[in-house]
Design goal:
The complex is a heterodimer of chains A (about 350) and B (about 600).
Chain A: H1 2-27, H2 39-67, H3 78-111, H4 127-156, E1 165-172, E2 175-180, E3 214-217, E4 220-224, E5 229-235, E6 240-244, E7 249-253, E8 259-263, H5 269-274, H6 276-291, E9 301-305, E10 317-323, H7 325-334, H8 338-344
Parallel strand pairs in A: 1-5, 4-10
Antiparallel strand pairs in A: 1-2, 2-3, 5-8, 6-7, 6-9, 9-10
Helix pairs in contact in A: 2-3, 3-4
Chain B: H1 6-23, H2 30-35, H3 40-70, H4 77-87, H5 95-131, H6 139-158, H7 189-218, H8 231-262, E1 273-274, E2 277-278, H9 286-320, H10 327-340, H11 356-384, H12 393-415, H13 418-424, H14 428-458, H15 464-482, H16 485-490, H17 510-540
Antiparallel strand pairs in B: 1-2
Helix pairs in contact in B: 3-5, 3-6, 3-17, 5-6, 5-7, 5-8, 5-9, 5-14, 6-7, 7-8, 8-9, 8-10, 9-12, 9-14, 10-11, 11-12, 12-14, 12-15, 14-15, 15-17
Classes of the chains: A alpha+beta (about 350), B mainly alpha (about 600).
């Protein structure tokens, strides 16, 4: 098989070479050199530019039409709604700029293609025009900056809500663990030197504040709807990134550092499963899965790792369940506190 | 060195020239002519051909990992043939090798092709030619610059063949992943070789960069005022200054990482438990590494881009038979981009745990860069307006560059906005953005340069029709590869995932990945047309005439023979700027820079 491919390549090269010999020989008979740009070339390429532009724009709209509803569902967090709105305005703006400038580029390439009758004008600059296209982008960008920073400051403000739920996410190659502050509302101190089998999150076993913590939550963690969630993040080995795309939340987990991100979920997992956008999206996903012979799945919020962290980076995930307050409390009541977990051992 | 003036070198040269004529025994050995050459034209060709070889390696890698992404778990004889049984067992790509491939693909493309290859080739070729100099200020340093580049390329390529595989922590090599051999096999010997290779690369880049700056400042011929220089030279000058100021920071960044790896220091490491034991390192911070890395890393984007923009300015003006629109605005915007590029690096770090207030500052500076960039794009388009466009293959690629510069540039406005970056940071939206705005634009600029100056480099012409075929395949397939990636990003797909099939939420994106990969394969095969055209034309292309594109710049006044010292007699004297195309009252539609101004004729853009 490999030999045949090799043979085919060799034959192709020989054929190409022979063809070029013929072209080379016939070239000697012509007046214009092969490399010289003729009116025919310019005409052809100018029209090709115009054609390309049309297909380029068609390709763009085809993609939007076909793939836009595979984007992430509308945000399930309070600040995410603002991000989505800002995103949309910015997207409309750049789409307009993208189309207009590309249009002029390819249109001019076509219109001013060098035919026998074409003559170039000697134009070196135009101060008014240049001022206009410096100032207009500057003004538009000023608005983008102002709105962007306004939202940014709100989103990144320290969590202050006294009623918030503090969840610690602890990343390691290649899984996540979660920890909740217990009744005292305080997460216990940590010490990476104390990590061992029963203390996988490296809690400081001498800190009483940690005794009532609910630690070592694996595979999925629960949060209540409509309450502020403060994520506190650590890493055990390399940099990871906690990415919760449905909530428009992301922050790196950096060894030696504690990072935070706060958000307020607005839809429970159950509500999200019934959201029309999500229903349609899951139908598409399950149709594709059926083709691969895989079982259908239901929607779940996810925590992904979004910073290269090693061989299984692509499979570092955890489910996030957004519950009603009552369900959340019921789930929490079933979890074991850290000290009893240690004592049990 | 700064005291070396053109006039002194000139006396020396003319004396030498006479001497040669007297004895007629000046024969160069093979080694001094082709290997350890100190001639800027030969060094330029050495850079170009090395970069082409590296580009083919990096492109092949991209085809392999694209096949994995579109058809995960499928068995490909091609993958087994390329990677062997260890990394491509049964034709399935190993996950560690996947990360190694994306790492080395990025490293080679960014540094070896688009920095070394682009600046090394064209700054070397064009600076002496276009400012009217005999050669670079220091031919010896220039030669060293190439050989350090070569050594660095050899080490990087050799690292592909070692037992544990090459570096695989991503081209940004963030520690601790890159610092700890327990974290990933690529952080054993492979990472050491990567770090050595990059250090040599920086040495090469500095030797070249200092030479470019000195040559432009000191060796301009009579009449070549700064404001008469072609925009190519301006671009190379600003690029070289950026490189000289930012590359040393990469070395310090890399040396500290080497210390952490080998000497037990803790610059970047703290509180780590790996391989079943806690490490002693305390007090370091990976965020420090990120600051140092991106302090080079962001100017690097413009080190890659500016030469391509310079080449495009020259090609678009020449091929539109029109002066470049807004010559002074073009210089001003390049200077502005160059300055701003040093104070925007933090926009790579909005989500790293850096203080959000610091992030706000970087949002502001980053969005400012959009202004000079927009000015450049508008100026290109307006240069074509009312022109008489001659579609050389170089012109096609230049138009391609302007298109990709816009298309990729506008998504930069989104990513520079820290609020919007939260949800697309490190996703395919970013991959799409930087491949289009930086990768495509720079490589299109490089192709434009090769097609335009091939006659100067190899004294023969490339085949035009093959150039056309190459352009259309490249442009359409490039957009076919990178445009759909935006939609993967909108669906939240993280970059550097070995496969997306472990997340049901990405199952409906299979067809997007297939389209991307099919376009990548066709696009890669299409580069065969270029490779054939390039190497065939070196030996069998038609003989090039003196000034095939009817261009104004000085390189086209030298004889079509690669002679030492470029001009056989005295150096040319410059009387006008480089853009007198279609000037009213002139016999032809171009006026070479050496033609004296007529009585009462205005020079430059003072109309």
């Amino acid at each position: 098989m490999n030999f045949l491919v090799l043979l085919a390549i060799v034959l192709l090269v020989i054929a190409g070479h022979q063809l070029l010999r013929v072209i080379e020989l016939s070239r000697g008979l012509k007046k214009t050199k092969e490399w010289q740009i003729t009116e025919t070339d310019n005409n052809m390429m100018g029209k090709a530019m115009l054609t390309f532009m049309i297909f380029f724009f068609l390709f763009f709209f085809w993609q939007v039409n076909r793939w836009m509803d595979r984007s992430l569902p509308p945000s399930a967090s309070e600040h995410g709604v603002k991000i989505d709105m800002l995103w949309d305005y910015n997207m409309y703006l750049i789409t307009v700029v993208f189309i207009i400038t590309n249009f002029f580029l390819f249109w001019f390439a076509y219109k001013y293609r060098g035919l026998k009758t074409t003559k170039a004008s000697f134009i070196t600059h135009n101060n008014k025009l240049e001022m206009a296209w410096t100032i207009i982008p500057a003004v538009v960008l000023a608005f983008i900056i102002i709105f962007g920073l306004k939202f940014w400051n709100e989103i990144m403000e320290d969590a202050k809500d006294p009623n918030r739920v503090v969840v610690e996410l602890y990343a390691k190659q290649f899984d996540w663990s979660a920890r909740y502050a217990g009744k005292d509302g305080k997460l216990g101190e940590t010490d990476y030197r104390q990590i061992d089998g029963s203390n996988a999150m490296g809690m400081d076993t001498t800190d009483a504040a940690g005794f009532d913590d609910i630690a070592n939550i694996k595979n999925e963690f629960h949060i209540p709807v409509n309450r502020e969630i403060e994520l506190v993040m650590r890493s055990r080995d390399v940099i990871h990134s906690a990415y919760l795309p449905h909530f428009r939340a992301q922050m790196n987990c950096v060894p030696g550092m504690i990072t935070t991100f706060k958000f307020k979920p607005t839809k429970t997992t159950v509500e999200m499963k019934n959201d029309p956008y999500v229903v349609k999206m899951m139908a598409g996903i399950n149709a594709q899965r059926a083709k691969f012979g895989k079982d259908p799945v239901e929607f779940d919020y996810l925590l992904l790792c979004n910073k290269i962290c090693g061989a299984s980076h692509y499979n570092m995930q955890m489910n996030v369940i957004v519950d009603t307050e009552a369900d959340y409390n019921a789930w929490m009541a079933k979890q074991k506190v850290f000290k009893s977990a240690v004592a049990a051992k | 060195m700064a005291t070396v003036k053109n006039s002194e070198l000139e006396k020396e040269h003319l004396a030498h020239h006479d001497h040669v004529h007297d004895h007629d025994d000046h024969e160069e050995s093979f080694v001094s002519k082709y290997v350890f050459s100190m001639d800027h034209k030969m060094i330029s060709r050495q850079f170009l051909i090395t970069a082409i070889v590296m580009a083919v390696i990096a492109m092949t890698m991209s085809v392999i990992f694209r096949m994995q992404l579109a058809w995960p778990g499928e068995k490909f004889g091609f993958i087994n043939a390329m990677l062997g049984d260890k990394w491509g067992k049964d034709g399935i790509l190993d996950p560690n090798m996947y990360l190694a491939l994306v790492t080395i693909h990025g490293t080679i493309m960014v540094f070896f092709v688009l920095t070394g290859g682009l600046s090394g080739t064209f700054a070397n070729l064009l600076i002496p030619y276009q400012v009217g100099a005999r050669d670079m200020a220091s031919g010896f340093l220039n030669m060293l610059s190439y050989w350090f580049f070569f050594a660095s390329s050899v080490i990087m390529t050799a690292s592909l063949f070692i037992d544990d595989g090459p570096a695989s922590a991503g081209w940004t090599i963030y520690p601790p992943l890159s610092a700890l051999p327990e974290a990933i096999p690529g952080s054993k010997l492979g990472m050491t070789l990567w770090l050595f290779s990059m250090t040599l690369f920086v040495v090469s880049s500095l030797l070249g960069g200092i030479n470019y700056v000195v040559t432009v400042l000191n060796l301009r011929t009579k009449g070549m005022k700064m404001t008469r220089m072609p925009l190519t030279v301006w671009a190379f000058l600003i690029t070289a200054i950026l490189g000289v100021l930012s590359f040393p920071v990469l070395v310090s960044c890399v040396v500290l990482l080497l210390c952490d790896r080998s000497l037990g220091t803790s610059f970047y490491l703290s509180d780590i438990y790996i391989g079943g034991r806690p490490l002693d390192n305390v007090g370091g911070s990976p965020v420090l590494f990120e600051h140092l890395f991106w302090f080079l890393g962001h100017p690097e984007v413009y080190i890659v881009l500016l030469p391509a923009l310079g080449i495009t300015s020259e090609v678009i003006a020449t091929s539109s038979r029109k002066p470049i629109f807004g010559y002074r605005a073009m210089i001003g915007s390049m200077l502005a981009i160059g300055f701003l590029s040093f104070i925007v690096w933090g926009h790579h770090m909005f989500m790293t745990g850096m203080n959000p207030f610091l992030g706000s500052v970087f949002v502001f500076t980053t969005l400012l860069i959009a202004i000079p960039s927009a000015v450049k794009a508008f100026n290109y388009i307006t240069t074509m307006w009312k022109g008489n466009i001659q579609f050389t293959p170089a012109m096609l690629f230049s138009i391609g560059l302007v298109s990709s510069f816009i298309t990729g540039g506008v998504t930069g406005i989104i990513l520079a906005d820290s609020t919007l970056d939260i949800n697309v940071h490190d996703t395919y939206f970013v991959v799409a953005h930087f491949h289009i705005v930086m990768g495509l634009s720079a490589i299109f600029g490089m192709f434009a340069g090769v097609y335009h100056w091939f006659p100067k480099m190899f004294l023969r012409m490339m085949n035009k029709k093959l150039g056309y075929v190459h352009f259309w395949i490249t442009l359409t397939m490039a957009y076919g590869v990178f445009f759909p990636m935006h939609f993967l990003g909108l669906a939240g797909v993280p970059r550097r995932y070995y496969t997306n099939s472990n997340f049901p939420m990405f199952d409906n994106l299979v067809d997007i990945n297939e389209i991307v990969t099919i376009c990548a394969i066709i696009g890669a095969l299409g580069q065969g047309v270029f490779l054939f055209n390039f190497f065939y034309s070196i030996f069998r292309g038609e003989k090039a005439p003196q000034n095939p594109w009817n261009s104004n710049t000085l390189e086209w006044t030298t004889p079509m023979a690669n002679i030492h010292g470029n001009w056989p007699g005295a150096l040319p004297v410059v009387h006008r700027w480089a853009y007198d195309y279609s000037k009213p009252g002139k016999e032809k539609d171009f006026v070479v820079q050496t033609v004296p101004l007529e009585e009462g004729e205005q020079d430059g853009d003072s109309h």
